[in-house]
Amino acid sequence: MAIPDGVRREHFLAAITKFEQLGMPAGFKPSHTYDVEHDGKSYPPPAIIAYAIEAVTGELPKPGFPVGKGAKSFRLITECGFTIRDKRKHQTD
Predict the structure, then answer these.
(1) Which residues contact 36 (CB under 8 A, 6 or more apart)?
(2) What CA–CA distance (Å, rounded) separates 51 from 64?
(3) What is the 3-state secondary structure of the chain?
């Protein structure tokens, strides 16, 4: 499923709330490289994007849509005022 037009900040906020209530959607995996940050907490981008898409379309997409630097999903997240953090740059030894 392609990421639909019309995903807005309120959809991402609803997605974060849903993630906090239900956790990871079935079939999705934790993020190894990036996190979406909001109010001092970190969230896996694929799960947040999936729940945001569901808020727009009424259907939870299957895993496999493009996520990562340069992808429409990351552009939408940052355009909506969220920060994407590269976890590799913040690891401590």
Answers:
(1) 12, 16, 42, 43, 44, 45, 48, 77, 82, 83, 84, 85
(2) 14
(3) CCCCCCCCHHHHHHHHHHHHHHCCCCCCCCCCCEEEEECCEEECHHHHHHHHHHHHHCCCCCCCCCCCCCCHHHHHHHHCCCEEEEHHHHCCC
Q: What are phi and psi of 7, to 5 degrees?
A: -75, 125
Assessment of whether the complete model's pTM goes beyond 0.85 = yes
Kindly give the confidence (pLDDT) of every residue in the chain, 93 residues in length, as a single tens digit, with 9 standing for 90 and above: 678 889 999 999 999 999 999 999 999 999 989 999 999 999 999 999 999 999 999 999 999 888 888 889 999 999 999 999 998 886 554
Taking the C-alpha atoms of residue 42 and residue 85, their distance in angstroms, rounded to an integer, is 9
